[in-house]
Amino acid sequence: DGGITQSPKYLFRKEGQNVTLSCEQNLNHDAMYWYRQDPGQGLRLIYYSQIVNDFQKGDIAEGYSVSREKKESFPLTVTSAQKNPTAFYLCASSTNSDNEQFFGPGTRLTVL
Amino acid sequence: DAKTTQPTSMDCAEGRAANLPCNHSTISGNEYVYWYRQIHSQGPQYIIHGLKNNETNEMASLIITEDRKSSTLILPHATLRDTAVYYCIVRPLRSNDYKLSFGAGTTVTVRA
User: Fold this and answer.
1) By CB distance 3.0 to 4.6 Å, which of A41, A63, B90, B102 could disulfide with A81?
2) Beta strands B61-64 and A87-94: pairing type?
């Protein structure tokens, strides 16, 4: 089955620790994205990547970092510099010729 | 700056059609109307998109007014599984701006 996987579904971390969220897709999509969603709110873009080894900041990149070493993988690191990291994190992908984005199931991060 | 306005919530009876309105009075000539939905604690799911003609697929129909300032998403026979937040988004089909701007959407509750 083609799709996007995010793991784990739930993640707990202590304050001050960095944590990396995984996102993998086997859709052969060039572009990948990370969004953050807070309760009752829409999605906000953290980072996106249109091609391997290249990525751009979104609206709320501070306190986050990404890498795109492989086409199918776009991991997101939530660093200790992110002041309010508890949220629902969503990864998406698309072709570069069509803006329809396919989303993963999300990872709910709770920082204690 | 919100490009679309949607009602906060609406109820629908199971088996009946659900008509979801969206206003996008500042839409540009090259912008499409996209609809996504998000079932609780899952990633958003693409539903449909259109430019000016009405569109239909296996999930829904999209009716866009002649002046393109508003549109309606129609779920022809709502089921309990259609309970979700529905997002109306406007953006160019192919663009270097890959961000999807999700507002708060419409929370649709389908009741038995």
Assistant:
1) A63
2) unpaired
